[in-house]
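Re: the 138-residue chain
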Amino acid sequence: MDSTDRRLLAILRTDGRASVSKLADMLKISRGTVQNRIDKLTADGVIVGFTVRIAAAEDPHAVRAVMLIEITGHKTVAVIKTLRGVPEIRALHTTNGAWDLVAEIQTENLGEFDRVLRYIRALDGVSKSETSLLLTTI
């Protein structure tokens, strides 16, 4: 990935519905180049899907949390690749200290939240996790 790919991804994070024409204008490259880059990023597994994100204020019943994840052995790359495909994970961060990853999770309800937690905890390479619900954004 080069700086143009990183800029493209940044734009798509804020506006995943931006047209190829709009992206091309913003990046100062041709529409064909934008489409080729999106296709390559998708084929390489960098872009794993497109989704709609609703502001927390617009969905007051959403369950939001931060999950700290510890990974065993040399499984980091595989675990990250799998987690990037989980649509309920809004952001994924590497970190230092006792925990290897921090996942920001949002689901529609507690049942879905429980399903996501069980899925992540069962992944090969995930040895331990700690989750904190986010109650009020101030």
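The chain has a mean pLDDT of 90.
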